[in-house]
């Protein structure tokens, strides 16, 4: 897929991931929280594509998770590329949002912050232990505008609510997280990818019916497997008419277009508007993001 | 007619007015801070959520939680740790200020002895403050602080 660049890709896969945080502006200002972390001895580097995100460049005398600021929910430990899908979806105050696969809540809390705790987010997950983590993180972050549900994401179309925007951060083979956890390799198989691809197609084709006309849906994964990305988008556009894939641009973020062909399979031309994020491009996790507009 | 979560009761205007009055008397938080939200009650617990959340048809959702657990009723009203961390800055009464050493012990989940305060507290449930930060709730009686921090929120080591 990457040709000559494969070596660079593999090199970056071996470099441990930089820790990143997002300041929770529902509870603290960016300047106040960053100053307090600097006072603890942390060196912070701004993440170019978000005003609230920072990389932590060093270890201080105190562990990040043991700081008073962490206890108070002034910041959330969140990987830099994981902040991208909510930025692309761009939820606004008083909107109604569906987050189909919300746990453990990093993107849900980010969206609630962007919405200034107004409107409504249905934060769904199917797994009870993951829901406990989701609720803990919502509470700690001071989130009020959510309803947590436990439903099969592929059956959410039974809801009577029509949403302004939908985020599908789909369960995936997590190839892009290899820098954080090499164990993803032991779980990786083609069977896993094909199984997940089927599930992702179910989720997207069902969730799209909950989207209002004129609404936006963002589909994201932390994997680079085309079967879980461009193939899912192609399937969605084949099954549901009136959808357009919109181009994604975020200042300071290097992205590459989605691939139109993989192992003999031809995908819709529109996938070139999707964003592939390789670890070597922004020194982050690998990610895939698609922005879909409904007529 | 739109269906609501069955076991939760939505507070009506009068009940909200009584709740705001109670909170104002106990903690000094103004009604204007609280009346932009909706409140739900079940047994002794009160949750708060947005108006938007209650305007939707929730009938086909398998709900696991709504908004934030805001307070518990006993003899007096006890605000939760999460509510205090969000609204504590608007409180003017019943605030116990700790010094650095006591705040660290509080965050570890320990009870505190020989804690004196110049403020005469209205109820035994107090808001615990350290510097400009609002940490959570405690029971204050006879110069002793009984810790009310949930176990999973405590900091084990600094």
Which secondary structure elements does this structure contain, and how are they paired or packed?
The complex is a heterodimer of chains A (295) and B (158).
Chain A: H1 6-14, E1 19-23, H2 30-39, E2 44-46, E3 53-56, H3 68-71, E4 75-77, H4 84-89, E5 96-99, H5 106-114, E6 120-125, H6 128-140, E7 146-150, E8 163-169, H7 183-187, H8 190-207, E9 211-221, H9 230-239, E10 243-246, E11 256-257, E12 261-262, E13 265-266, E14 275-277, H10 279-282, E15 287-294
Parallel strand pairs in A: 5-6, 5-8, 6-7, 8-9
Antiparallel strand pairs in A: 1-3, 1-4, 2-3, 9-15, 10-15, 11-14, 12-13, 14-15
Chain B: E1 9-10, H1 13-27, H2 31-34, E2 38-42, E3 45-49, H3 51-54, E4 63-66, E5 68-73, E6 77-79, H4 81-87, E7 95-97, H5 100-108, E8 125-130, E9 133-141, E10 144-147
Parallel strand pairs in B: 7-8
Antiparallel strand pairs in B: 1-2, 2-3, 3-5, 5-6, 8-9, 9-10
Could you list some keywords that capture this structure?
heterodimer, A: alpha/beta, Rossmann fold, nine-stranded mixed sheet, four-stranded antiparallel sheet, 15 strands, 30% helix, B: 158 residues, alpha+beta, Nuclear Transport Factor 2, Chain: A, five-stranded antiparallel sheet, four-stranded mixed sheet
């Amino acid at each position: 897929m990457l040709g000559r660049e494969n070596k660079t890709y593999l090199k970056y896969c071996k470099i441990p991931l930089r820790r990143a945080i997002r300041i929770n502006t529902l509870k603290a200002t960016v300047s106040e929280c960053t100053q307090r972390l600097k006072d603890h001895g942390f060196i912070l580097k701004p993440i170019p594509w978000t005003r609230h995100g920072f990389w932590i460049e060093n270890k201080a005398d105190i562990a990040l998770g043991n700081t008073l600021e962490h206890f108070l929910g002034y910041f959330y430990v969140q990987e830099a590329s994981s902040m991208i899908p909510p930025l692309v979806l761009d939820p606004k105050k008083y909107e109604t949002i569906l987050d189909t696969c919300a746990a453990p809540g990093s993107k849900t809390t980010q969206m609630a912050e962007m919405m200034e705790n107004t409107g409504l987010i249905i934060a769904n997950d199917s797994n009870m232990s993951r829901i406990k983590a989701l609720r803990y993180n919502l509470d700690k972050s001071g989130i009020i505008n959510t309803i947590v549900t436990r439903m099969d994401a592929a059956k959410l179309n039974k809801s009577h609510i029509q949403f302004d925007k939908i985020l599908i951060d789909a369960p995936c083979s997590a190839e892009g997280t290899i820098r954080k956890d090499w164990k993803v390799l032991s779980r990786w198989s083609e069977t896993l990818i094909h199984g997940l691809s089927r599930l992702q197609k179910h989720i997207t084709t069902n969730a799209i019916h909950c989207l209002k006309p004129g609404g936006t849906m963002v589909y994201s994964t932390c994997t680079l497997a085309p079967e879980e990305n461009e193939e899912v988008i192609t399937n969605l556009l084949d099954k549901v008419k009136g959808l357009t894939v919109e181009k994604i641009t975020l200042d300071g973020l290097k992205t590459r277009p989605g691939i139109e062909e993989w192992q003999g399979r031809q995908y819709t031309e529109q996938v070139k508007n999707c964003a592939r994020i390789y670890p070597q491009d922004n020194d982050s996790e690998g990610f895939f993001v698609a922005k879909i507009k409904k007529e | 007619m739109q269906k609501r979560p069955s076991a939760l009761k939505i507070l009506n205007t009068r009940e909200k007015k009584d709740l705001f009055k109670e909170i104002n008397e106990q903690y000094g938080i103004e009604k204007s801070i609280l009346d932009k939200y909706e409140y739900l009650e079940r047994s002794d617990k009160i949750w708060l959520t947005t108006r938007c959340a209650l305007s939707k048809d929730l009938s086909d959702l398998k709900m696991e939680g709504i908004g934030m657990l805001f307070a518990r009723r006993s003899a007096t009203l006890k605000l939760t740790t999460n509510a205090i961390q969000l609204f504590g800055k608007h409180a003017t009464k019943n605030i116990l200020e700790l010094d650095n050493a006591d705040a660290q012990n509080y965050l570890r989940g320990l009870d505190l002895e020989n804690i004196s305060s110049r403020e005469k507290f209205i109820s035994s449930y107090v808001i615990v403050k350290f510097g400009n930060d609002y940490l959570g709730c405690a029971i204050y009686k006879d110069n002793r602080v009984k810790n009310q921090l949930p176990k999973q929120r405590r900091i084990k080591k600094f």
